[in-house]
## 1
Amino acid sequence: MPDQLAEWVRWLLGSENSAGAPPAARHLWARWIFLRALGFIYFSAFYSFYFQIKGLVGPDGILPARDYLQAVEGVFHGSRFWYTPTVFWYLGTSDRALMAVCWIGLAASVLLFLNLWPRGGIFVCFVCFLSFIAVAQDFASYQSDGMLMEAGLLSLFFAPPGLRPGFGSAHGPSRASFFLLQWEWFRIYFQSGVVKLASGDQSWRHFTAMDDYYQNGPLPSWIGWYVQHLPHGFHATITGVVLATELALVWMVFLPRRFRIICFCIITPMQVSIILTGNYAFLNYLVLSLGFLLLDDQFFQRWTPARVKGWIEPEEGMAAASAAGVPAWRAQTKRILSAAEMGVAGIVLGWMFYASSAQLIEMFIPELPLPDAPIRALEPFRLDDRYGLFAVMTHERYEIEFQGSSDGGRTWLAFPFRYKPQNPAKAPGIYAPYQPRFEWNLWFASLGPWQDYRFVVWTEERLLTQDRDVLELFAGDPFDDHPPQRVRAVIYQYWFTDWKTKRETGMWWRRKLLGVYAPELEREPDGKIVVLEEPEIVPEQP
């Protein structure tokens, strides 16, 4: 029995490319595409950080990482790295250190995209991205971050070894890592479907969830404006398609290849439509790329030129021929390293499978006494996420706007945003996979009281002192080189305009001022900042 178990574990952690394996049992093309997409996604994440990180968590940013790490140090001195795993413990949190990690992450993502030392590139990207989200605090509380962390860790064991592995025919993906990436894809969909029903949101039950979805998402697009104006029947149909896809269709991943191909052909256009109608950063790009793992090499053969096929097939024979001439000591060393790698892979992948499976089971049987220590141990690494998108739909759109005054509050000028709706005459754009984390978080803040989102008040303070890094988060500074005397945050409600208004005025939005959202602040002559006015209104919780 122990021998059989060991053999089964070796099969699970070993390469799927056994001798003579047919193309339908291989996934070299799917792996190659997914890893190139992963490099692109990592690049988009670091590119977004490059233009925002100093304003978000820099020394003069909204939520300085320096202050956060000092607080963690005071509470978790002996285990500070485990609680907050980041290289900034050693590099410091200066602007230079933040930019250096951005550049390293960007370089590693380019290497991964170019298929140069993919395992090394993934490891560096994983460490750099983890370092940022570990200190970004309120600006890294998104499920998409956890999805990328999980995909990155699993890809370390999925990618081929070597500096220039090509398609890696001699080192096919391990069965365990391949399954767990498919498992992540399945859980993203299925858990999202489950929470929609479990939340009790009547809009999902009454098929009205999509009636105002395109208008009320974090960052709508101009394509979403047109889709929003389609009749209710269309939106009700889409609601049914979403529920059917997430709760039923995704189970095809566990069926024979023909069903998986059908599933891919249905879900891929769906993800593309979400990318075009809503700006959800790299989330949909990641889910889209994971979907390619539904396809096998036999599917790609009909589209593969003969010369490209030649790059793939000969590698196995070449590897076997080269292995025959390897000295005994080198072969023994290779076997030891391979066994060590398999041991590490077994621990990490087994841990990940237990944690993700336990959380899925708890969604249906919460009273089941499953050990939660392995799950809690993954929390600092953002690998414990229970996915569930759009459990409760938002049926109103509120927008927070920062305004400043230099004449005692008689005249207020708005600080213009780069991406979120503000000017009713400006068309909403398409920005994904770029993620403006500051503006994204303001959407969440608009749905609750300012006391739960104190970064809004701290942003007001930075605007009073004209902090350059924070001002870079905005599209401009209406006060040029002289700081405002007062700053406040007001809240509007927004709606898409109708066809008639759009034709006559060119306006994409109409809006209504609801009142002051957060305390109004004033900078006194001695530089002291005081609170002048408490908010008059807070939006109702959805």
Note: Residues 328-364 form the longest helix (37 residues).
## 2
Amino acid sequence: MAVRKTGAKAATAAARVLNNPKATKAAKTAAGSALSQTGRAAKTGKVAASAAGKALSADKTSPRGRKAAGSALAQSPRKKAKPEGKSKAP
């Protein structure tokens, strides 16, 4: 499995989001998560992933905020798919 880290462009965008007083709380949470993962392998936690999702779905999130949120979500653990054909339905 490939190690995912926040790249330089996403880290710059995240830093700008954190310095923007008009950025939403969700965007700042996602940006903080993305920025904390710069240069090291780490995973985005549930709270930060939820905030990143909210930031991506909000109309007022800036392009930089979306980039930071996308980076944070890209580093979140993936849910394992349920095996098909093992239904408990009668």
Note: The radius of gyration is 15 Å.
## 3
Amino acid sequence: MAKDLTTSIPEDQAIHLVPATPQGAVARLSFVMSAYLRVVSLVFLGLTVLVWASAVGYEGFQNVPYALPPFTGQSAPQQVFIIVMAVLYPVTAVGLWSTLSWGRVVWISAILLQVVMGMLYLNPPMRADGLVFFHLTAVALYFTLALVRRVIANRG
């Protein structure tokens, strides 16, 4: 006769699979990283507003740094760049806000596109050195936080 395994193991001796939650310094660093990603997400939301304002022809942001000139006055490659960024920036903002891994992938893709377009076309709006510097600094800070979190997690 086969024994019923569910009744043969007392409840206090059963093994329960509970997902591990970070504790201590790792938990604090995880919180800091989530907050950091959300701040960067807000920056991308602001960039989204600037790009969409240009795409629809709003000229009220022309004195704002990194605002794009009116869409109709752009060359074809610049218009394609504006359209791609008008889609990529809000997707990046949502992905970073949700702190899911695909958000970081889209973030890196947006940065790479900005850098490559800046190298191919040496004139604005493609080349925005300050914006590229911000992106690279933000990514470097993120990777530094991730490295510190991993070192602390492996140490403890």
Note: Residues 25-55 form the longest helix (31 residues).
